[in-house]
Predict the structure.
Amino acid sequence: MKKSERMKIPRQRMPEQSPDERRRCFVEVNLGLADETAQLEATRCLQCKKAECVDGCPVGVDIAGFVDAVSQGDMEKAADILYRDNVLPGITGRVCPQETQCEVKCTLAKKHDPVAVGYLERYVADWARVHRAQVAAVAESTGKKVAIVGSGPAGLTCAGELAKRGHDVTVFEALHRPGGVLVYGIPEFRLPKAIVDKEVTELERLGVKVECNVVIGQTYTVQDLLADEGFGAVFVANGAGLPIFQGIPGEHLKGVYSANEYLTRVNLMGAFQGEQADTPVLRGNKVVVVGGGNTAMDAVRTARRLGADPATLVYRRSEKEMPARIEEVHHAKEEGIDFKMLTNPVEVLADDKGWVRGVRVQKMELGEPDQSGRRRPVPIVGSEYEIECQVFVEAIGTRANPLLTKTTPGLKLNKWGNIEIDEQGMTSIPGVFAGGDIVRGGATVILAMGDGKKTAAAMHAFLMAN
Ligand code: FAD
């Protein structure tokens, strides 16, 4: 097909559950592309000589290569190409902010809609999950042992890359289930846990061992791993899961949650199943969530599914400044989430028994851009009013948990408590590397994976030299 003909094909739509159905259940919203639709979408790719989309991908997937294979219906080849650079494509195909990464660089995006790279990535990964098992070759054993702390996307990616190079890799995870934010934070309706489980199983097939319920800093220290447990190197990827609170009056009240606790109760502990679950969650007829990122969006859409009406999102800037993925914002609106932009909570209000009865909020306007480049929200004096709710969820960010860093003498941290690393990803302790949110602060799945991949290469060199 000529380029001009390809350019006439419109971007294909992802089929999804109707908003009315999905706001009552936790089943995945996006349903995946059918074979013909995927092939048609893949045909839109212009196969640019200098494929700039790849520059937008932190793990450097050969996008033009796997998309071309899809357009020819050669799924084995598509999966080979995709898995070569990305060990978790079923996950990234679902949660990556493609609109600001690969798709924004697509040549088509200059005049048309970009190729739906995320949809195609998901399509190939879902095909591979059903049609084949072992997806990567493993080098001969090096006899070297490596410890990974944390089983989020950074840890899992690093583990996979090191196992492929022939190292004996053990992942230590504090929780009872591997996956990090992918299982405790991101809800089932965006990323089914079965997808994460399957991708972890694929890593286990490569030889990666996963030990859950092990807290590094408590069960073992980092020094124990190096000195007593025989590990030649350690990759610290324990994320940044410590919630930040606004620091407003009333945060101690019954009915106030951090988004992390709220989502963990519902997702990881299964509180969405109601009385069948051991872990409860307060439902509340009216729920207010504060924040503008993916976490806030997940929390408010979860509240809606648990029956909140309204489930209200308050954010101190305007919708344009929201860091959440565009698709999540769009889905949230379709599900009837009440968006109150340029609004900031200033107090959580109590009833006479110490339960939340509402939040006092203040309207904001946008001033000059701040350090992040976004326009600064400025309070409007005298604009305060109350919103009734029984549950108030704070999703304004997280920071590094000090449990590991405090018990690791000599580990250099920055002023926010994140681990400092050199260009190779090595910390101030020789043989101890770090990546993902514990280094960057709260970022994205693909950036964490990029760290895992890049650092694995440096760790391999370190292990082979020592
Ligand atoms: P994590 O995923 O946080 O994993 C760290 C793991 O380490 C956890 O399993 C933790 O239990 C474990 N751990 C912690 N301390 C210890 C210890 N001492 N010993 C052993 N194990 C330990 N990004 C996107 O790209 N797209 C999205 O749609 C998106 N949505 C998000 C939604 C929510 C609710 C949240 C919270 C984040 C979201 N993000 C999203 C951000 C993304 O999930 C993170 O940037 C990413 O997971 C960071 O990966 P990580 O491997 O560094 O850490």
